[in-house]
Amino acid sequence: MKRYLFLIPILAAPAAVPAVAQTIQRISTERPVHAPVRYGIAADLQAYPQDHPQRTIRSVVKAALSGRIDYMLAQLLSPTQVDAKLKGDVDALRRLKAQSTPEARKRIAEALSLQIEEGTWLVTKKLAWAQIEGLPLLSLEKIGDRWYMHNVAVPVPEEGE
């Protein structure tokens, strides 16, 4: 049985993937973003820790299972990718939350949990990737002292890049 990971497909169209990846790579090397409140939602690093890539993914799983899609978008996913799609529109964030279903959230949580437990991880100073054959690449970036999951994965750089 094939497993597919579709986080929030609305956030990026397939044609935008290369452009988004290039933007993420460029922005991730710029100044840290300190955003304790985004889209009206305060960061809760006690309940949703982001100090390590795997803990961030566990926080995404927890947010998904508890129906906190708003928190996931505002605080756990790449601010660059989320802002590119939502452009600060709190109502758009609420609409995305309303569109999520328990079944979809459960599938997301299962696929991400599998990446944590069985994925092959590569972690650098500012970027991290997890891969399992048959599942999409998972990537995260570190901004300031927090890790954020990408909705659209940044490719693993080839050796020498």
Question: What does this protein look like?
Answer:
There is one protein chain. With 161 residues, this protein is an alpha+beta fold. It has a domain of 106 residues: Nuclear Transport Factor 2, Chain: A. It is 42% helix and 14% strand. The protein contains 6 helices and 6 strands, in the order αββαααααββββ. It has a 4-stranded antiparallel sheet, covered by helices on one side. The longest helix has 17 residues. The radius of gyration is 15 Å and the shape is globular. It starts with 16 loop residues before the first helix and ends in a 12-residue tail after the last strand. 34% of the residues are buried.
Give a quick precis of the structure.
With 161 residues, this protein is α+β, with helices and mostly antiparallel strands. The protein contains six helices and six strands, in the order αββαααααββββ. β4 (127-131) and β5 (138-143) form a beta hairpin.
What are the salient characteristics of this protein?
161 residues, alpha+beta, Nuclear Transport Factor 2, Chain: A, four-stranded antiparallel β-sheet, 6 helices, 14% strand
Task: Extract low-pLDDT stretches.
Answer: 1-21, 27-33
Mean pLDDT across all amino acids: 83
The helix-and-strand class reads alpha+beta
Number of strands: 6
* Gap from first CA to last CA: 35 Å
CATH class annotation of the domain at 1-6 and 51-150: Alpha Beta
Beta-strand residue percentage: 5-15%
Major beta sheet summary: 4 strands, antiparallel
By DSSP (H or I, 4+ residues per run), the number of helices equals 6
